[in-house]
Amino acid sequence: MRSRPRRARGDADPRPGGPRPTARRADRGAAPQAAGRPPGDRRRARPRRDDGDRAHHPGHPRPRSRPDRRGVGVLPPARRRDPDLRHVGQRVPLPAAAVDLRRVARRGVRRGRGGFRGHGVTRPRQHHTAPTGWVNDPQLTWHDGRYHLFFQYLPDRTTWELGCHWGHATSTDLLTWEPAPVALAPGDGDDGCWSGSIAGGVVFYTSVSADRPEQGRIRRAVPADDSWTTWIKQDVVIEPPAEATHFRDPFVRYEGDGWRMVVGCATAAGPAVWSYRTRDLKSWHADGIVAARPGTEWTGKGWECPALVEVDGSTVLLVSVWEPDALHYLAYAVCSPDDTADPGLHPGTFRRLSYGPSPYAATAFADREGRPGIVAWLREVGDTAAGWAGATSIPALVSLRDGRLELAPVTATEAWSPAVGDSLERSGYTLLARTGSVLLTSGGHRVELPWSGETLRLVADGPVLEVYGEDGWAAVPLG
Asked: Which of 205, 342, 393, 407 has the maximal Cβ count within 10 Å?
């Protein structure tokens, strides 16, 4: 047996190309020597990429281009060859609101483990959401050529807490929204700036303290100028009544020769609405309770976010049904207020308006033509990993038919005219027409919407679905 000569330390290996692979490496196969490389360079040869294409080997399918992963999922990142920032499939340039959100999408939202979430995350394109943070309880009004949407807002959280702000966004069409600076923030005697309304250019909001959050006080704020960008807090104008176990969410509208404010509350007997009057929006006198129900009924233990809306010559009271451990749904009643000294609303039969886990905290508004409408908070819509939670429903104009409130969203809808037994199956949800109702199934949600054979109107917008019928409205998150 011939012995292999031992080489001195520092000598080059006498074998051509350096050390041969061991048997273990030989099992895997050696990479071919690349032409033009010096002996001993065993780096894997890479196919050339011509004209910027990915490497492609004959006989194998060309790999598909991977989607850009930089954004939050609001809009696809802009490319240099898209100077007008058109959306995929869109033939008109995006509005300014979408451009602003695109900037947020480029930056991304960092996840807890340090990654960025973008591809596969969906946001509604027509439902308002904040770029980041928690959203609930909207307020909507028309001013100086634009719609102004105010909403409960927690900029740095995706769960609710007491210290709510008033967020602000503007629009010209109720579907594309441009973020604006925060209007109100905790401080100056407020541990939280909770829901309210706008009347005569004045904000009335619920000022809460951490030691008594259920008994809110009603406080004013006024704009610094006509842009409504900056707001200045003023005095508290109403203290909670002694008998109210909760008291919040003022809604103000012009009525007769002055202004009426209704406030949601609960007493030991059940839910109620308090009323106040003024002529100058500063000094208020109490009318007392103007609507109430027993706490043992389906209308809950208390009412939040009351609103009065004039529809086809009738006054409609809209409330959000509340219990200490649950936020339920929206209910309404057509009222018969007396034009004499009696301030009572005299509501008639209460009916349920909303179905599903999402709609709550609705309020009334008038569009630029003065037509009445409502808008609501949509719960369980969001992406906590991407840093946002909560959405606003598509604003809807309202009308009365046989004493029932009907909604017409201010966007295009899909019509579905089923017969009993028909079903509609789409990605994320299924509708099944049954006798007396339509069953909506989405993820773990099963929602029954009253139905009597009419055509239903559908709006599917990213992670949310809204369904409109003649006797109610349903909204669910699409998982």
From this structure: 205
